């Protein structure tokens, strides 16, 4: 079982979009039973709130089912329960490192590094551009799947 946690600031836009997209992709590949996928916030601002309407609308537009979700903040207990904790931008990576005691087990990854980029995934809460965020999430998910295939081929996982 591969356990993946996507993280952004509030857990209502980018991380929930990534959770739904990645869940859809692995199910489409027939691998859904090999993953536990969730998403978390680094802040407490949106705790208990559902995904942002822009996220819901974008998923509806591209015909990807929304994974039912309420925003929650990541904890050290979550750190212990996940193999990959994937942050959306530099700011969230700093917060994750602080919150998760410096990442002692090497589980933190910035999302687009899987796609060979150090770019941040822009927060559509501020930009209003869910299309750009969706494109970046697709790029990150595809890169992450390539990375996992590479590890599997080398029998690392």
Task: Report what the structure shows.
- The mean pLDDT is 97.
- The chain has six helices and four strands.
- The protein is globular.
- It has helices at residues 14-28, 53-61, 76-81, 90-99, 124-127, 130-153; strands at residues 2-8, 35-41, 84-87, 108-110.
- The termini are close together.
- Strand 3 (84-87), helix 4 and strand 4 form a beta-alpha-beta unit.
- By secondary structure, the chain is of the alpha/beta class.
- The protein has one domain (2-153): Response regulator (Rossmann fold, 3-Layer(aba) Sandwich).
- It has a four-stranded parallel sheet with strand order 2-1-3-4.
Number of strands: 4
- What's the CATH H-level superfamily name? Response regulator
Approximate shape: globular
- Count of DSSP-assigned helices: 6
The CATH topology name reads Rossmann fold
Give the helix/strand class: alpha/beta
Strand content: 5-15%
Radius of gyration: 14 Å
Helix-strand pattern: EHEHHEHEHH
Query: What is the number of domains?
Result: 1
Strand order of the largest sheet: 2-1-3-4
Can you tell me the residue ranges where pLDDT is under 50 for at least 5 consecutive residues?
none
Q: What is the mean predicted local confidence, pLDDT?
A: 97
Helix share, percent: 40-55%
Question: What is the CATH architecture assignment?
Answer: 3-Layer(aba) Sandwich
Largest sheet: 4 strands, parallel
Q: Give the CATH level 1 class.
A: Alpha Beta
Measured between the Cα atoms of the first and last residue, the distance is 9 Å
